[in-house]
Structure prediction request, 339 residues.
Amino acid sequence: MNGMPSTALTAAAPARRYSRIAGTGSYLPTQRLTNADLVVKLAARGIETSDDWIAERTGIRARHFAAEGEPCSDLAAAAARRALEAADCDATSIDLIIVATSTPDMVFPSTACIVQQKLGIAGCPAFDVQAVCSGFVYALTVADSMIRTGAASKALVIGAEIFSRILDFNDRGTCVLFGDGAGAVVLQASDTPGIIASELHADGRHVGILCTPGSVAGGQVCGDPTLKMDGQAVFKLAVGVLEEVARSVLVKAGRSEADIDWLIPHQANIRIMQSTARKLKLSMDKVIVTVADHGNTSAASIPLALDVAVRDRRIARGDTVLLEGVGGGFTWGAVLLDF
Ligand code: UT7
Prediction:
């Protein structure tokens, strides 16, 4: 050993730290509206739409709306409890809570703090991430980074939305698209990945194509507090960035399209999902689609779809899953993980 202290040769490299999904959960409000129900509701306002138009242009057939007085934090806490149960862990072991939402209970404090209180725990950091429909991918990436650096060991990452509260029911181009719900995961430290690679982007030049421009000032709601969208502009940008970010996260991970077992894109429009799958040469059988039953639930759509596919046993331990978000901001991102 040439007189070298043996420890110098045998000391193990510091163990690498990753994050892995330990359990998933979701929650949908009980009130379910089919397209036919919405046609009737809108007709009463003199707004014309049809089941055929909604289903053909978007793939949506139904959505869930929260009950009056049911806050976003209730949906988030219900999804979180189910994720904790699936991960077989107690809320007291959670040391980080991140809620992705654009429809928080209050201006402040964060919905994450309210969820923390509802789960009966205290002390760990809790905050919201606001990246609209990319919110869950953003939140998961932040939680993964905090776990990798040792700042957290077991995180609740939640996407929760009540978009029904910010819809303009006189605008048929948007009010038929969205629904309410929540999805959650328990993300915990692991010595094997888990999350393999992620990538986040934003381009604020497109703030105006998808926004809810109202604000609160001087005790008044200023500006229009309902959702505005240039659907075609969003559609065009979405199909471009979803292909681009899928390819670059795969390169980062040293994997290829052929390694993807399941694609879970943000659930906004079946045509966007079909286009992404086609470009990535993936069969639609590998794409988890919940838009028909949930509508577009913004930051909740990806964790909701993930939980549905885990519970119906399509997604199994070890499967490689690509999550992709896109939405207002303009924001987009992807997370590649081994489940
Ligand atoms: O969650 C963030 C990401 N969001 C998205 O990715 C959404 C992206 N955009 C889309 O999914 C689609 O653009 C929409 C579904 C929003 C709209 O579909 P489109 O094929 O782009 O329709 P359009 O806006 O070009 O409208 C076509 C026609 C118009 O009538 P005219 O001008 O051709 O006579 C609209 O007035 O469809 C009409 N229309 C409707 N008709 C019946 C719009 N909304 C409705 C409606 N029912 N609900």
